[in-house]
Prior knowledge:
By secondary structure, this protein is of the alpha+beta class. It has 4 helices and 2 strands. A two-stranded antiparallel ribbon has the order 1-2. α2 crosses α4 (67-81). The longest helix has 15 residues, at 67-81. It starts with a strand and ends in a 7-residue tail after the last helix.
Amino acid sequence: MALKKVNIEANGIKTFEVELKDLTLDERAEVNDAIMDENQSKNFSFWINIIRKGTELSDDEINSYSQNEIYALGSKIINDMNKKKKKK
């Protein structure tokens, strides 16, 4: 699976680098369905699940990030996966 390095930046956190997966259409659909589901609580677990789908980080690696870093990483995954894809 292809990975690409991205910088995670947000107010109040130090910029850090993470490798994101190139999600398949099915994975992208699962994440977008969770985002659009009004009954889906956007709690901490929601963001952890997005990070698990969008990276190959271990639970220990994810757990080392602060709450704000987790939100920033989850947001970056969502924004990145929904960018217009370049044709190969």
